[in-house]
């Protein structure tokens, strides 16, 4: 089976972001970018499927500007076989929105015939958590979101997926092909070792212009304003419990 | 323990919540050294270097940092963690890819040392002794047979290596060494002692696995007196004199005295570079010293970076006399001077790395120069961090105490400050105009 994995290039988890002067977006002009951590988990799972001889081929797909190739290279260094870079100059943290991403992935699906899409459950830039669900809808495939365990059946016709849901864990079985989204505890991604970084240089990345796929890339949501979280006001100290109660009452909190 | 990914997702949330108001953020990215580390700048010549840095940084944060304090306190070398560097391809970072190495350049070596030292300089010193002083030395100077026999296991971390130059009675004065190898039939017989050998021991009683050992094979009083031998654990007469304890710093790296009593090594296989290399070790020594000094300077960068991060955060968060410490001029000087010196040192190290071929000698002014400058820089920066952090800085838990101790070694090991000054002044005496 062939597994497609989505890898998004997002602001690095440790980077401090600030907001553009026009308040229309986060300023990403000189910010460290990295593979979205949930996507990294999805790559790891796909590579493990390959190591278990469940998958024959793992293809890493990233949509974005030229630099998106960096995260594809990282996926290749982790063990993916080849990459597809769908090029666009739209900002992937806000202009290119989940529905358009899902449509692009659906278009690639028709052409390449994967047996599964493995995606991160969400990206840490826009935190949308929508692409996997929309992609499943567009393809009319089953979806298994928030996976913490994935087991493909011996005949490779279905997968048993443990999902992290509010009440605990839910185990479902989905026929393949399916869309699976990775949650945090699915696995611990490996490091891209130096020998594998070197090997990855020889692996192929195909480039496709997003505009050539015949899908509507326009955003459905307009960003009116981006603002920083409110800063926390300094607290105050009280002498004793009585004073605390009095203050809470005075502030109308009790 | 949080998984690596969990750490990232969690701290992403935390940093978003802790967004500081815009006026504080205006200087947050630091031009040359901050931001994106774009491929093509001197710190990141290629995409490979970028991926290397990301990998080592992630590994350091997740696996080196959590063990550093305990191993520093207990003077314990973390052998299992060391072996993991082999899985990552770091132990043979510059070594021949045909023999298990990763075939990267001096800049890559600098990146690895800088990143590891930001959490644990003493762990990094053991890494340096193995990867630069032993593995790289053998990869550059050894025969194909020697490389094929030893490098794969050394690159994988199955065996631990080191380099023996210093002696109880001769350090800076290398040519004054007294360890002697005497030709006897098809063998050389080595007698003497070596001192301060990093990775000389892997426990209180057990030797490291293999060593390159400089020994005297002549008495002409010049460069042709020295030869380089391979000596391995288990050879009769080769023993651990003592593991040296209670060092000021680099406490998680094992340092040992090694004793050679009639150690018999076959000339055909154990003279590094082949049987015709008697009396020709000085070139190998010069080549390797350049890389050693460069990577020791790279360790200074990691120490300084971490120290600056620590003092900067502390000076921002700690309040005294109604304001943050970083509002006081004296503290501002500690922070700003440290940053500027760090940035200058970093530029010097990476510029020197880009010019340093692994198999050539001839960069001595700058390979001595980077270490001379950066060792003092790191020591001063760590000291200022400790000063900024007051009593907290003086205690192990806040981590700069280890950095402060470890930094001092860089003014002694791999050549003392005075040795660098001597070399540089001698080389510069032939120069009329500087570029
Ligand atoms: C933790 C640690 C790890 C080490 N690891 C290794 C290793 O793996 N392999 C190895 O071979 N060695 C190793 N060394 C040894 C190190 O390289 C030596 O300590 C160093 O070269 C200095 O030699 P020395 O200690 O004999 O001091 P000396 O050479 O005796 O120097 C003492 C003082 O005299 C000064 N001095 C000496 N000559 C002159 C001169 N001509 N002009 C002015 N001043 C002078 C020195 O600068 C110094 O200040 C290590 C040392 C330490 C502490």
Question: Can you characterise this structure?
Answer:
The complex is a heterodimer of chains A (254) and B (435). Chain A is of the alpha/beta class and 254 residues long. Chain A has a single domain, classed as HUPs (Rossmann fold), CATH 3.40.50. In chain A, 26% of the residues lie in helices and 28% in strands. In chain A, β6 (57-64), α2 (68-78) and β7 (82-87) form a beta-alpha-beta unit. The longest helix of chain A has 15 residues, at 37-51. Chain A is globular and about 70 Å long. With 435 residues, chain B is an alpha+beta fold. Chain B contains 14 helices and nine strands. Chain B has helices at residues 4-17, 22-25, 47-74, 79-87, 106-117, 121-141, 144-156, 267-270, 281-317, 329-355, 364-388, 390-393, 400-409, 417-428; strands spanning 161-164, 180-184, 187-198, 210-216, 226-232, 238-243, 255-266, 319-320, 323-324. Chain B has a four-stranded antiparallel beta sheet with strand order 2-3-7-6. A three-stranded mixed beta sheet of chain B has the order 1-4-5, covered by helices on one side. In chain B, strands 8-9 form a two-stranded antiparallel ribbon. In chain B, a hairpin with a 2-residue loop joins β2 and β3 (187-198). In chain B, α3 runs parallel beside α5, α9 (281-317) runs antiparallel to α13 (400-409) and α10 runs antiparallel to α11 (364-388). The longest helix of chain B has 37 residues, at 281-317. Chain B is globular, with a radius of gyration of 22 Å. Chain B starts with a helix and ends in a 7-residue tail after the last helix. At the A-B interface, β3, α1, α2 and α5 of A face α1 and α3 of B. Flavin-adenine dinucleotide (FAD) binds next to β1, β3 and α14 of chain B.
């Amino acid at each position: 089976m062939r597994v497609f994995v989505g890898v998004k290039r997002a602001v690095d988890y440790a980077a401090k972001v600030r907001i553009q002067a026009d308040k229309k977006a986060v300023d990403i002009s000189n910010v460290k970018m990295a593979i979205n951590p949930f996507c990294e988990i999805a790559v790891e799972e796909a590579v493990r499927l390959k190591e278990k001889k469940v998958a024959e081929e793992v293809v890493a797909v990233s949509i974005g500007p030229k630099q998106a190739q960096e995260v594809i290279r990282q996926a290749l260094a982790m063990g993916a076989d080849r990459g597809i870079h769908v090029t666009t100059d739209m900002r992937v943290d806000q202009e290119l929105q989940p529905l358009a991403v899902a449509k692009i992935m659906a278009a690639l699906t028709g052409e390449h015939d994967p047996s599964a899409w493995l995606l991160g459950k969400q990206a840490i830039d826009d935190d949308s958590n929508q692409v996997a669900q929309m992609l499943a809808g567009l393809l009319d495939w089953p979806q298994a979101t928030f996976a913490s365990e994935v087991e493909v059946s011996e005949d490779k016709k279905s997968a048993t997926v443990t999902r992290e849901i509010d009440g605990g864990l839910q185990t479902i079985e989905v026929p393949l092909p399916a869309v699976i989204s990775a949650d945090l505890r699915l696995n611990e991604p490996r490091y891209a070792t130096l020998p594998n970084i070197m090997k990855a240089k020889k692996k192929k990345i195909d480039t496709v212009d997003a505009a050539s796929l015949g899908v509507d890339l326009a955003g459905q949501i307009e960003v009116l304003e981006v603002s920083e979280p409110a800063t926390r006001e300094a607290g105050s100290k009280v002498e004793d419990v009585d004073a605390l109660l009095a203050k809470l009452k005075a502030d109308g909190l009790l | 323990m949080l998984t690596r990914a969990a750490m990232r997702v969690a701290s992403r949330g935390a940093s978003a919540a802790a967004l500081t108001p815009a006026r504080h953020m205006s200087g947050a990215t630091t031009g040359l050294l901050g931001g994106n580390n774009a491929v093509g700048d001197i710190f990141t010549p290629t995409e490979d270097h970028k991926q290397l840095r990301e990998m080592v940084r992630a590994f350091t944060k997740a696996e080196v940092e959590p063990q550093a304090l305990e191993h520093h306190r207990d003077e314990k070398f973390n052998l299992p963690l060391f072996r993991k560097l082999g899985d990552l391809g770091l132990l043979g970072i510059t070594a021949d890819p045909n023999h298990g190495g990763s075939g990267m350049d001096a800049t890559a070596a600098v990146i690895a040392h800088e990143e590891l030292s930001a959490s644990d300089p003493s762990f990094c010193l053991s890494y340096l002794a193995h990867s630069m002083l032993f593995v790289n030395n053998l990869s550059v100077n050894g025969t194909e047979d020697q490389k094929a026999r030893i490098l794969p296991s050394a690159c994988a971390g199955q065996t631990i290596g080191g380099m023996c130059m210093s002696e109880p009675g001769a350090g800076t004065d290398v040519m004054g060494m007294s360890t002697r190898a005497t030709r006897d039939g098809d063998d050389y017989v080595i007698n003497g002692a070596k001192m301060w050998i990093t990775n000389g021991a892997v426990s209180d009683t057990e030797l490291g696995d293999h060593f390159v050992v400089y020994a005297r094979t002549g008495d002409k009083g010049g460069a042709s007196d020295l030869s380089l031998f391979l000596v391995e654990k288990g050879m009769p007469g080769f023993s651990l004199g003592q593991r040296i304890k209670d060092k000021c710093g680099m406490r998680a790296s094992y340092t040992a005295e090694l004793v050679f009593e009639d150690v018999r090594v076959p000339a055909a296989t154990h003279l590094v570079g082949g049987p015709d290399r008697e009396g020709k070790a000085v070139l190998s020594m010069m080549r390797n010293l350049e890389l050693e000094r460069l990577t020791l300077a790279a360790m200074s960068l990691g120490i300084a970076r971490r120290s600056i991060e620590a003092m900067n955060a502390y000076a921002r968060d700690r309040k005294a006399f109604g304001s943050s410490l970083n509002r006081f001029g004296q503290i501002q000087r500690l922070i700003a001077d440290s940053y500027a010196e760090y940035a200058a040192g970093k530029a010097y190290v990476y510029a020197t790395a880009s010019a340093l071929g692994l198999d050539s000698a001839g960069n001595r002014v700058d390979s001595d120069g980077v270490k001379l400058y950066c060792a003092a820089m790191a020591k001063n920066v760590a000291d200022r961090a400790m000063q900024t952090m007051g009593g907290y800085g003086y205690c192990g838990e806040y981590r700069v105490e280890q950095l402060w101790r470890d930094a001092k070694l860089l003014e002694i090991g791999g050549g003392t400050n005075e040795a660098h000054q001597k070399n540089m002044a001698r080389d510069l005496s032939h120069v009329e105009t500087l570029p």
